[in-house]
């Protein structure tokens, strides 16, 4: 008897979604991590990158070595102004996130079913030039503990860190996750609450192999990394989350934003 396929092509060429998130588990990580290499198509990637590049200049927040955008707005005291995401951030990403069941028997249960708004309502866009990363950190209490990250443009390694018994950071990553362009990485539960994540400030990711990369078996293009290294290029990430507190008092919060 023929076995059912573990993944199903979406209606868009170049997109291949799993039949459930169980099929996308990174088994070297805790069971709270999933990786889908072909979550969006090359054309969808181009469209989203074009929208990001052509966003109004006030949307960009310039940091020392990189820049970012927040949609629909920044948080004020861990609270989001009630406003919709723009259509280009809704489609195709949000509809696909909600269409993939957590497990095959529970077809109506998505990764956001247990979140307050049952869908992501906030997107952080980070642009990482070669050699630029971000210090190990936790995302904090403003969000439901589910993070969905779509990578665009280039690959890089995300490092996950443990905290030692004395509360200090263990400088050696507990795991490394290689994020390819057009991929989706989902982390939740203990990976959200108990571990820090960061990106090293390096020009090239080294020591890439099945032994060192937690999602190696799920990669789309393992052959591209068989040399053991990957030169960084500019990578853009879309981080989708559900902000717990949402206020309809847009005018009052808007006054705080203008200060």
UniProtKB/TrEMBL annotation:
GO molecular function: dioxygenase activity; metal ion binding
Alphabetical list of SUPFAM superfamilies matching this protein: Clavaminate synthase-like
Protein origin, superkingdom: Eukaryota
Residue intervals of the Fe2OG dioxygenase domain: 119-244
Entry GO terms, CC: nucleus
InterPro entries the UniProt entry points to: AlkB-like, AlkB-like_sf, ALKBH6, Oxoglu/Fe-dep_dioxygenase_dom
Localisation: Nucleus
Principal subcellular localization: nucleus
UniProt KW keywords: Dioxygenase, Iron, Metal-binding, Nucleus, Oxidoreductase
Family to which this protein belongs: Belongs to the alkB family.
The protein's name: Alkbh6 protein
